[in-house]
Amino acid sequence: AGDAAREAFAEGARAPGRRGRLLADHAHFELAQGNLGEAKRLADLAARERPRPLSSYLASADVAAADSRLGAALAIFDAALGDYPQGQAALLGKIRILDALGRTSEARPLVVRALGQNPGDPDPVHLNAKLDARDGNWPKVREALQASEHILDARPEANVLYAKALMEVGQPEQARARLASQVLRTPGNRPARLLLGQPKLAMGDAAGAAETLRPLSGLGDA
Q1: Are the CB atoms for 54 and 89 separated by under 8 Å?
Q2: Position 218 confidence tier, pLDDT thresholds 50, 70, 90
């Protein structure tokens, strides 16, 4: 599938006309495949197009973030918002970088802005809940994510955060059920598996907690 996708991207790149968006999509594809160097090369090519497409900014910022250059990623998202003030993806990207940098106070007004631009978007809802979790406001996290409970199964990070909130507000059984379902669907989800041990312990199931965590104990970075 990867070779077929690369051939399709190569064919598109040979076609006449603007190629910035295609190159940016190709960069994101290579980034997802773990090919950081090739992703950077493609993102740099996409960045040469004028006017520069929003997708090119996003590719360059995501490459910088993947390379642990968070300051550079933040600057790229800022430049993207300068050219595309209503660019929700760039706004959410900037929020994520600010969150990663621990600059919560700067991220909060941007979350409010993102929610205002698209109230039905679950991404800013999740980001807002993450900020509330950093403040230890677990009832607010639970309330925010409960409204989108029906889609959390497809959003593992948000699902784990919701389960953590359920535990913190004294609902370990609900947390256990949600995490167990997540681990069943994605056994390699380490945060979900690690967290699943806690409600099992809280419910007096020490043996079950040990069994849940055993797959993690043999990993080199356990």
Answers
A1: yes
A2: low
Taking CA atoms, 212 is separated from 186, 188, 199, in Å, by 13, 12, 11
- Give 117-151 pLDDT, tens digit per residue: 988 789 999 999 999 999 999 999 999 999 888 89
What's the pLDDT at 128? 93
CA 132, CA 16: separation in Å to the nearest integer?
Answer: 48
The position carrying tokens 């996290």 is 141
Between CA 185 and CA 178 the distance in angstroms is 11
What are all long-range contacts of 130-134, with beta carbons under 8 Å and residues at least 24 apart?
A: 130/99, 130/161, 131/99, 131/104, 131/107, 133/161, 133/164, 133/165, 134/99, 134/104
Mapped to the 3 state alphabet, what secondary structure does 68-107 carry?
CCHHHHHHHHHHHHHHCCCCHHHHHHHHHHHHHCCCHHHH
From CA 222, how far away is CA 217, in angstroms rounded? Answer: 6
Cα angle at 69 between 65 and 75, to 5 degrees?
85
pTM: 0.83
The pLDDT value recorded for residue 7 is 78
